[in-house]
Structure to design on (1109 residues):
């Protein structure tokens, strides 16, 4: 919807945000607790056809073997990659009551082999982004947020890089922002935009680790493209590590 | 014209002459109600826009000749991000596909709506037409001023759209929904269009009233110069064809801003999600409304040029136009027919046989009046004593160029051959032959021809020929290869032609076209220099430097406020050249013969 | 890549009926050439013969140019012939004489920004039901209903259309989002795809059509990457078509993530 509008307000908003970013926000509250665990699936994913890489000659050459959509992937032991695990306040809010400055380094999204790397990632609201095309084909990255401004641009040449300043990325918490490539419709990425840095994405073995959490009561929330989201109550104490494994049900 | 009428004219004239001395700079040159000043404002503004629109195309030509290469000179400028969220046309010096689309859409829009229409109608129509009918001014001078001051903001909004969030329009000059409703940048375009259309409507009313009501005594309709007839038909086209587009433009704007769905069908799935906010509209409705304007618009572009060419040819062959009346009837018929051919732009939309039969038949019929006008102009050369000055060179070059443009319209107007040629470079070649070496040559002819009337000084002939010849050659090197590319199957609006078989095979032609375009840009320098320097350094002229016959040459050069020193009367047909038994080879309309 | 067409004229025609369109285009261009050259000779002759010469004066007499009248009538007659004799019958055949439904190959084409999705009915010959709510751009771009038994054997491919030479192809075109235009230059077939409507079209690869891959182009500006909406039509023999079909049958793919995450 956003891009339909003649968005002068967005310009004003971005200028204001740029000013705010300049006025050095106090860093949010950090702690010493850790939450870790494994995310696994309760069942088998519905099988799907492999990605039609043949749609673009370059993509076919880059992927000689059939490639499954990342959302369908599962490890032999039932654990899931690409689950986004994050912290909510005890009453289920994204905001933990303390303001966190986004990290200085940009969230990099690479268009490589006609897939997005990473496929699932988290960022602190207002963090900068860096969009890279390492493919020798034209990509068009298109974000489809509901609570944020959208961006939509092409990178027709290999090696093109675009740095998105804070005002151009996602400034409002939103789980998840879908990003897709308009040329290669199968290419999609999901970005969890949070007002704090307590999140992780599962990798091998479905493992995640969230560090430096201040002591307190929270909800541990899990999102996955193919599986139903879940939230569970946790309580952490300074210096302690809490282990929580989560099984996701079918959507 | 009744005697009482001419009496009124006399009064109007006196008032004008009286008020003239009290005008300050602003009222005289900026918020002027004088048709000549407004005409010149339109002319200069339109020329600037034309050059700007041409510049956009030169950038696109780089991408087409050298796909993916860094654009020289302007690449880094276009890659500069002016503010957060700004839509860049290029990244790292390389033109982006969306940048290419924006340049393409704006090239079309600027050339048609900000360049040629204002130049042909607002510029030449305003300046020349009242003079040619012997009127002191337009019927509604203030409306005339308003027309310009509605046009200018429309144009500025269009230009400013490059710097707005979302950038300039990227949905083609045709703005087809649903794309134009979901694409960024279109809002400014629509707002700009609404201004431009309003301006044209104000102008057209004024033209019609002026031509009907303010002709000099003795100037009957069939004593009008052909140029006035062309403007008269054009004004009707603008008046009748633009309102549907104005309505359509407002509807599309509401689709974008107010959440309506005039042009949005149900069940859309846009960018990976269901577009639940739309439904029930029709994308085809927009196309019908758009082309209901845009086909008459083609004749809005070409008729004034035909008018200018007729004037210049009559003057420089030193003989009357051949078939003046049939030309007038043909122009009127052309105007009428132009309202019932629009759907030939839409043959590929799944049209049924009945409707396509109607439209391809009317399309074939409309070629006949064009053939009549063209034939009349060529036969007018027979028996003449042709002077090859710069205006005449442009005017006669118009004829074969328009002929190619017209002929290439035939295979596009037949549904079956259109299956292959629709939306290819053939279409681009076709309508550019009509509009670029066609209309624009007519415009150049007009500028060189009436420049002495507007400024009191001649433009330089040598520079004029230095302008004409390279422009003529380059035009053909640009547009003829496009016909071939289209035949080969190259789709238009293709950012990188190399990924298609036809594009790869015709890349050499793309390179040739691009080089010709850049050389043609250089060939415009003598014109620009000539245009500005001649204002001060050109040879001074009296009122009739071309030994012409029509009434505008009875006024001083430049004409004062109120135009004529004594009210002119028309005593004869417009093109009495080389009359037997006279020393001079011309007999102006206003001259009274001693019996 | 199929055969490159090096000629600066129409691309190679691989369809059974495309020659009718080519004939029309050729005839009309010959006519245009004759008209232009004839007219041009007269034009240049006038310019040279009637150039201003000292002491010469124009003749104000208007000639009785009967030739022009004949030329105009000639143009009108030619246009009538081409209209009634060529354009209308070809168009009528294209619109109203589709091939035998039972002998044709049927494919649904779903256009979207910026790809062509080709949906084949599979061995059962029946298209599975589709619904927007099942669309998954990666795994199920046309939104096949997983609960419909007819959908299970359906094949969806992106940007690649496989046809058999000598066998008519009937397409049903639709669009998810904006207006596209489906064009196969070598088949002389073109149709705008307007969202909200289904357009049935057909073409027939000639029996001796060159095998290989040819462009499918989107002929209507459809957004940022309109130019990238290139598809390919693969002209197959029945054998190579079957081979391709077999290669598509591995529908249940390994979903093991080990491959992706091995270091």
């Amino acid at each position: 919807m956003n891009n339909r509008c003649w968005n002068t307000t967005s310009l004003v908003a971005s200028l204001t945000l740029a000013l705010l970013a300049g006025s050095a926000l106090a860093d949010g509250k950090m702690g010493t607790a850790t939450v870790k665990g494994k995310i696994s699936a309760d069942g088998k994913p519905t099988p799907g056809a492999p990605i039609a890489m043949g749609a673009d000659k370059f993509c076919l050459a880059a992927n000689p073997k059939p490639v499954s959509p990342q959302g369908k992937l599962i490890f032999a032991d039932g654990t899931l990659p690409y689950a986004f695990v994050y912290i909510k306040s005890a009453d289920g809010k994204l905001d933990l009551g303390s303001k966190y400055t986004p990290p200085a380094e940009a969230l990099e999204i690479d268009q490589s082999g006609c897939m997005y790397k990473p496929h699932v990632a988290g960022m602190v609201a207002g963090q900068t982004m860096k969009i890279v095309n390492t493919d020798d084909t034209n990509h068009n990255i298109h974000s489809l947020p509901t609570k944020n401004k959208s961006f939509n641009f092409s990178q027709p040449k290999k090696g093109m890089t675009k740095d998105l300043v804070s005002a151009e990325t996602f400034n409002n918490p939103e789980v998840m922002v879908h990003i897709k490539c308009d040329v290669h419709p199968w290419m999609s990425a999901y970005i969890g935009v949070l007002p704090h840095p307590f999140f992780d994405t599962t990798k091998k073995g479905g493992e995640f680790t969230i560090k430096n959490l201040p002591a307190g009561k929270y909800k541990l929330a899990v999102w996955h493209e193919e599986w139903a989201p879940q939230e569970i109550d946790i309580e952490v104490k300074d210096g302690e590590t809490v282990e929580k494994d989560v099984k996701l049900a079918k959507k | 014209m009744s005697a009482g009428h001419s009496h009124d004219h006399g009064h109007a004239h006196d008032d004008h002459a009286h008020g003239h001395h009290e005008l300050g700079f602003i009222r005289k040159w900026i918020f002027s109600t004088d048709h000549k000043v407004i005409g010149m404002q339109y002319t200069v503004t339109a020329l600037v826009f034309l050059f700007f629109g041409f510049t956009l195309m030169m950038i696109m030509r780089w991408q087409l000749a050298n796909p993916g290469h860094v654009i020289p000179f302007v690449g880094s400028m276009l890659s500069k991000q002016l503010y957060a969220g700004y839509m860049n046309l290029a990244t790292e010096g390389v033109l982006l596909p969306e940048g290419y689309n924006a340049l393409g859409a704006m090239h079309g829009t600027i050339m048609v709506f900000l360049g040629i229409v204002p130049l042909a109608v607002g510029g030449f129509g305003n300046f020349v037409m009242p003079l040619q009918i012997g009127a002191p001014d337009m019927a509604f001078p203030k409306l005339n001023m308003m027309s310009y001051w509605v046009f200018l903001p429309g144009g500025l909004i269009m230009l400013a759209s490059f710097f707005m969030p979302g950038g300039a329009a990227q949905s083609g000059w045709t703005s087809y929904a649903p794309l134009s409703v979901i694409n960024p940048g279109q809002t400014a375009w629509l707002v700009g269009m609404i201004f431009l259309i309003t301006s044209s409507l104000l102008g057209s009313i004024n033209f019609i009233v002026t031509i009907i009501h303010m002709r000099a005594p003795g100037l009957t309709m069939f004593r009008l110069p052909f140029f006035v007839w062309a403007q008269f038909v054009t004004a009707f086209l603008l008046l009748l064809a633009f309102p549907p587009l104005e309505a359509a433009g407002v509807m599309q704007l509401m689709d974008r801003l107010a959440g309506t769905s005039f042009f949005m069908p149900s069940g859309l799935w846009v960018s990976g999600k269901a577009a639940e906010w739309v439904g029930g509209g029709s994308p085809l409705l927009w196309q019908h409304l758009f082309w209901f304007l845009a086909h008459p618009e083609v004749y809005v572009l070409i008729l004034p040029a035909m008018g200018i060419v007729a004037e210049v040819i009559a003057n420089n062959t030193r003989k009357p136009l051949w078939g003046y009346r049939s030309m007038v009837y043909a122009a009127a018929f052309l105007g009428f027919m132009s309202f019932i051919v629009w759907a030939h732009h839409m043959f590929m939309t799944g049209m049924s046989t009945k409707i396509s039969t109607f439209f391809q038949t009317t399309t074939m019929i409309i070629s006949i009046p064009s053939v009549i006008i063209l034939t009349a102009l060529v036969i007018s050369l027979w028996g003449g004593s042709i002077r090859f000055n710069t205006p005449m060179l442009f005017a006669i070059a118009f004829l074969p160029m328009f002929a190619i443009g017209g002929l290439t319209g035939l295979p596009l107007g037949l549904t079956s051959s259109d299956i292959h040629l629709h939306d290819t470079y053939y279409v681009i070649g076709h309508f550019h032959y009509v509009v670029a070496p066609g209309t624009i040559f007519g415009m150049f002819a007009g500028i060189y021809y009436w420049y002495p009337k507007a400024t009191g000084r001649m433009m330089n002939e040598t520079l004029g020929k230095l302008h004409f010849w390279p422009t003529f050659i380059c035009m053909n090197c640009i547009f003829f290869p496009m016909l071939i590319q289209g035949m080969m199957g190259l789709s238009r609006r293709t950012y990188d032609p190399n990924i298609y078989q036809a594009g790869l095979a015709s890349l050499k032609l793309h390179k040739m076209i691009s080089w010709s375009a850049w050389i043609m840009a250089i060939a415009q320098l003598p014109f620009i220099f000539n245009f500005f320097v001649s204002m001060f350094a050109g040879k001074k002229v009296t009122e009739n430097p071309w030994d012409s016959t029509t009434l505008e040459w009875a006024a001083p050069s430049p004409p004062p406020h109120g135009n004529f020193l004594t009210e002119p009367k028309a005593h004869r047909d417009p093109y009495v050249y080389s009359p037997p038994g006279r020393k001079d080879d011309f007999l102006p309309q206003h001259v009274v013969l001693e019996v | 890549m199929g055969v490159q067409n090096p000629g600066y004229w129409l691309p190679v025609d691989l369809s059974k009926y495309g020659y009718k369109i080519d004939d029309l285009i050729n005839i009309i261009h010959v006519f245009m050439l004759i008209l232009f050259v004839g007219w041009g000779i007269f034009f240049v002759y006038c310019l040279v013969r009637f150039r201003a010469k000292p002491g010469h004066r124009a003749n104000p007499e208007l000639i009785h140019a009967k030739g022009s009248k004949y030329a105009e009538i000639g143009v009108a007659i030619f246009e009538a012939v081409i209209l009634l004799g060529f354009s209308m019958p070809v168009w009528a055949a294209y619109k109203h004489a589709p091939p035998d439904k039972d002998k044709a190959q049927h494919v649904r084409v779903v256009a979207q920004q910026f790809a062509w999705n080709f949906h084949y009915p599979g061995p059962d010959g029946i298209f599975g039901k589709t619904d927007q709510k099942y669309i998954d751009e990666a795994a199920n771009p046309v939104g096949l209903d997983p609960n419909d038994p007819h959908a299970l054997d359906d094949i969806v491919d992106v940007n690649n259309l496989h046809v058999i030479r000598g066998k008519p192809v009937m397409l049903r075109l639709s669009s998810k989002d904006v207006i596209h235009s489906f064009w196969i230059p070598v088949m002389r077939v073109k149709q705008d795809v307007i969202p909200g409507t289904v357009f049935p079209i057909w073409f027939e690869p000639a029996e001796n059509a060159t095998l290989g891959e040819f462009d499918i182009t989107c002929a209507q500006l459809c957004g940022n990457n309109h130019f990238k909406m290139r598809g390919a039509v693969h002209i197959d023999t029945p054998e190579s078509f079957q081979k391709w079909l077999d290669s598509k049958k591995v529908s249940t793919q390994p979903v093991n993530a080990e491959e992706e995450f091995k270091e």
